Amino acid sequence: MRPVARPLYNIGVVALVLGAAALHGRFMAIERYNLLADIRLLWWLIFLLVLLPTSYALGLPETCTSRASAAIRSLSATAISFLAISAIQSIVTTPLLPRSSTGLVVAVLPIWTVLGLNLTRDAASRAASRDRVFLVAEREEDRQTLADDLAFGSEQPATIVGFMALDQLMSECPQPVFLRTAEAAESSIVVLDSGSQSEPFVVEQAAQLHRDGVRIRTLSLFYEEWIGKLPHSELARVSLLFDIGELHRIRYVRAKRVFDISFAVLGVLALAPVATAIAILNPFFNRGPLLYRQDRVGKDGEVFSILKFRTMSASKAQPTNWTSPDDIRITPLGGLLRRSHLDELPQAINIFRGDLSLIGPRPEQPRYVDELSQKIAFYDVRHIVRPGLTGWAQVKQGYASDEADAFEKLQFDMYYLRRQGVALDLRIAWRTVRNVLSGGGR
């Protein structure tokens, strides 16, 4: 970010606050007044003396890496500043700042912050804002996998600036090669896989980097925070013994079920007119039964019958094949239903019955579960919770079309199990809506 970012931001804040105050005195107040000769100018200046340091403490504007973070932090800064003035106002029992002009500050400051972010950032500054990752791992393949995952769609921007294989470090021990190389690469984060964490000389050098201000993460924790999944290579049976919302938090369980029932009721109400329209079109473009039932594996491994509007031709059914986006079995009407996600609407009945939740790991067919459980370690763990109409794996990757996709999805499902809660569920719901509206997320 260019050096002008902070002065530009501060000038804008001062101009906005004093401009709103002047507008109130000249045009908005019932009794007009001259701001320069009014006591309220003192309180506006006190407000500025709180707002500017608060903005600085929240990292505005230098550390903002997205428009959303800039807007949220600016709103937080104004909220804290107004709370401080309100505390003083409660003591003196006299209105200090007019609501109309303070509301103007609240509305305009986030816009100014985002605009300033766009004005002061270029391609080079965006690259500089990425976390610089130095990875120590047992295999070169781990570096390439991590680079691919970061490029695919990370939750936080990062780039790999250095890598050392564990056997290389061990051959050059006790020289602090790792320490010097990580410093030379100007790393902001050092990531250690499970193998390197067991080597005392690696941990010792990482501790020195930590004292110098470099953040240290295990490979598993880095994947959680930056990518949103748990790497299968780092999993062990004991590492799966974490708290799960549906098992260990009764309030979450009840809140989620109430939310599911509310959604299911709305879905059932919407089902009748949509089903009528699809039933009229079905004989012409999708001959056969209106609904499609299929066995899926639910919570605790129990099998249930999932409901969908049928999208495939029964005459071309190949029950042993994975479904792909260009599957020849998909009918013209079925393709439209799939792209619009209307084929999923009957699953509101599954949610109402308790087979499904709105958010959770997507349920698979029993034959796929049997097959994948034999080939992929810990695959059965995803059945600890109720499956969902949509889930973290769906918004991050989409639907599985083969075993490799199923392996990737499991890592996202593990992340969901570990972080399951209301905040993550709302995040998934929002991303699902965004994907549906953009025509993606299948």
How far do the termini sit from each other?
A: 37 Å
What is the strand tally? 8
User: What's the total helix number?
Assistant: 19
Mean residue pLDDT? 83
Write out the strand line-up for the largest beta sheet, numbering strands in chain order: 2-1-3-4
> Largest beta sheet, briefly?
4 strands, parallel
- Which percent bin holds the helix content? 55-70%
Q: Enumerate the spans where pLDDT stays under 50 for 5 or more consecutive residues.
A: 123-128
Order of helices and strands: HHHHHEHEHHEHHEHHHEEHHEHEHHH
Shape descriptor reads flat
Domain count, please report it: 3
Task: Give descriptors for this structure.
10% strand; two-stranded antiparallel sheet; alpha/beta; single chain; 442 residues; flat; four-stranded parallel sheet; 3 domains
Q: What is the gist of this entry?
A:
This protein is an alpha/beta fold. It is built from 19 helices and eight strands.
Characterize the structure shown:
The chain folds into three domains: 5-124, no CATH class; 130-227, Response regulator (Rossmann fold, 3-Layer(aba) Sandwich), CATH 3.40.50.2300; 246-438, no CATH class. The chain is 58% helix and 10% strand. The protein is built from 19 helices and eight strands. It has a four-stranded parallel sheet with strand order 2-1-3-4, sandwiched between helices. It has a two-stranded antiparallel sheet with strand order 5-6. Helix 13 packs antiparallel against helix 15 (347-353). The protein is flat, with a radius of gyration of 28 Å.
